[in-house]
Amino acid sequence: MIKVEHVSKYFGNDKMAVEDISFQVEAGETLVLLGTSGCGKTTTLRMINLLLTPSSGNIYVNGRNIKEQSPEILRRGIGYVMQDNGLFPHYTVAENIAVVPRLLKWETQRIQSRTTTLLQKLHLPPAEYQQAYPRQLSGGQQQRVGLARALAADPPVLLMDEPFGALDPVTRSNVRKEFKSLDELQKKTIIMVTHDVQEAFELGDRICLLNKGRIQQIGTPAALLFKPANDFVSTFFGSQRLQLELQTVTLQDIWAYLPVQNKTSKTGEKLLSASTSCWEALEVTSNGQPLIIQHHQENKQADNQLLMAAFSQYKNK
Ligand SMILES: Nc1ncnc2c1ncn2[C@@H]1O[C@H](COP(=O)(O)OP(=O)(O)OP(=O)(O)O)[C@@H](O)[C@H]1O
């Protein structure tokens, strides 16, 4: 769906922002560009919708080299969500959402109906919000409108630049969960920029970790944790590593190391599916509550200690 081939970007003659990066994002996949400030994430993202022109290399969207398309036409198929939401302050919420559909000359009724649908899905009751101006909304609400605007014409591709960056940690975590469960996003091909490791692990099917304009590793969250490509990757997660590992490894992964339980759950025991992460399971057992896990008609039992012991065995296998 998106193919980036040996792309470099220099500002002026010698300011290297991105050097020889290549990656591919499949249809329906979410790739997160992760890295510390200045590593080239935003530059990479902005080259894909031609807000910046690569100094060398090629980018293909849906099989077509973007060089061969006009930026305006290209961008109609690519939604773009900015960190500061980029809403027009003198447009109402409804007018902001209608920007691309108007460019596409949709009929008024179709625009209205699409706006209403999106506002409902994003938990902004249309009667209350469609005539409001951005300044009358909270940061989280503005960010939702920014997303609604990017989704309005149902583009197959979505580029998101630190979409939750301006929000406080609690709002950030809530809006992130909402984004994750939004049906409109399920089939989109998404490239998202963040410097927040938690966010990258929560939302990315794969993560592309950058440093100083170069790709260090691209892979699933589990691959970056358990099969780091180099020292930079293995030290990048620092003190967050254990939590990330527990969030990434599921009860199914540690199944072989848990004791069998030949009974169904009884009162006081929580029943979890094997796709639950070890982290979520520990949240249950940390208050002393044992749990039963179900997988392929087999039950296993676990408490805090059993979970951690099985996790250690899995890691050392
Ligand atoms: N217009 C520009 N002119 C000159 N240098 C630039 C320009 N835009 C970005 N750079 C430089 O290119 C490098 C990569 O910047 P970029 O914004 O892509 O990084 P980033 O990883 O997105 O950082 P942040 O997380 O802080 O947004 C940085 O060193 C930056 O200073």
UniProtKB/TrEMBL annotation:
Enumerate the PROSITE patterns for this protein.
Answer: ABC_TRANSPORTER_1, ABC_TRANSPORTER_2
The Swiss-Prot or TrEMBL record annotates one GO molecular function as: ATP binding
Q: Name one Pfam family in it.
A: ABC_tran
Q: Which UniProt keywords apply?
A: ATP-binding, Nucleotide-binding, Transport
Q: Which InterPro entries match?
A: AAA+_ATPase, ABC_transporter-like_ATP-bd, ABC_transporter-like_CS, P-loop_NTPase
Q: Which residues form the ABC transporter domain?
A: 2-237
**Family per record:** Belongs to the ABC transporter superfamily.
What name has this protein been given in UniProt? ATP-binding cassette domain-containing protein
- State the organism of origin: Chitinophaga defluvii
